[in-house]
Amino acid sequence: MMGTDDLAALLETLCPMFVLVGADGQISRVGPTLQKLRPDQSMAGRQFPDVFELVRPRDVISLSSLLASAGAKLHLKLRETPRTALKGLIAPLPDGKGAVINLSFGISILDAVRDYALTSADFSGTDLAIELLYLVEAKSAAMEASRSLNLRLQGAMLAAEEQAVTDMLTGLKNRRAMDGTIGQLITGHLPFALMHLDLDFFKSVNDQFGHAAGDYVLQQAARIMVEETRNGDTVARIGGDEFVIIFPGLSDEDILSAIATRLIDRLQAPILFEGNTCRISASIGIALSSQLKPPTAAEILNAADLALYEAKRTGRSRHCLYSVVAGRQNGNAEHGVASQL
C-alpha cells in the first residue's frame, strides 16, 4: 500500500495545490504552489480550519461533515491577508485516515498570479489555468501594442496639427494660426490690438551675407518678439520678413506704444552671424479692433497695413497707429491713414 510520503510525492507532481489532512483535521502536507502562498509560515502541523475558512457549503462544521461532502465543490478563503479565494474537491483516504483536498484558484487566478508572482512552473502541466494565463498574456500584449500604437498615432496627429499652424523656420505661428486667432476674437466679441511688423533692411542682409544669415536674423527677431510679448499673445510670421502680433484684451495706446518702442530698439541692435554684423530695424503699424465697428479680419489687417505703410513712409524704424477720422461722408466713416504714437 502506498505510504503517506509516496502519496505526497505523487500529489506534488499531479496536484501542486493539494492539502493532505489527517483524521483529526491536522494538515500533514501541502503542495508546493499552495505553500508558496504563505512562504514564511508552514501550513503543515496546523489545523485545517485555522488556515482555511470554508465559505460553502455552509453547513460543514467538522472534518467528519467535510468528509461527508466528498465530491462536492468547496469554496474556501485563506484566513490571513491576502485572503485569496480558492475552490476545491475533497477525496477521503482509505480506512478513515483523513483526506486529500485538491485546490485551485478558479476565477481568482489572475489576482493570485499578481499577488504571489506565480509562473507556469507552479501549476500542473495539464492545468487549464496555464492556457488561460497564456490567453490573458496574449490579450495583454495585444492591448499594450494597441495602446502604444494609439499613443503614437495621437502623437503624430498632434504633431501634424501643430506643424499646420507653425512656421517651421522660426517656431512662431503661421498665417493660418493668425487667421484662426483673429476669427475667434471677433466671434467672441473680444477687444484686441494687432501689430503688423516689417523688418527694415532685411533684403540687404540676404544680399550681403546669404540666406543662412537671413534665416538666423529671422530666428533672432522671432525670439525678441516672443520675449517682449505675453504668453497669451500670438506672434505669427506671415511672410518673408513680415510678422503680426495679436494682443487679446489690450487697447491701451500707451502700453502698445511702449511695446512697439522696445521691439524697435531691440531689433536695431547688431546681430552677429559667423563673424558678420547684420543690421536691421523694424517698422510697425498698429490697429485696434475698437476702431472698427464691427471689425472684420480683413479690415483690421488692412488698417494695420495702412499704419505700417505710414511708418515706412515717414522714415522707418518707427511705429504708427491707425486712426479713424471723425465725421461722415456719404454715410460712411472716413478712415485716415495713421498717426504716430
From TrEMBL:
PROSITE patterns: GGDEF (PS50887). It comes from Ruegeria profundi. It holds the Pfam family GGDEF. Residues 190-324 form the GGDEF domain. This is Diguanylate cyclase.
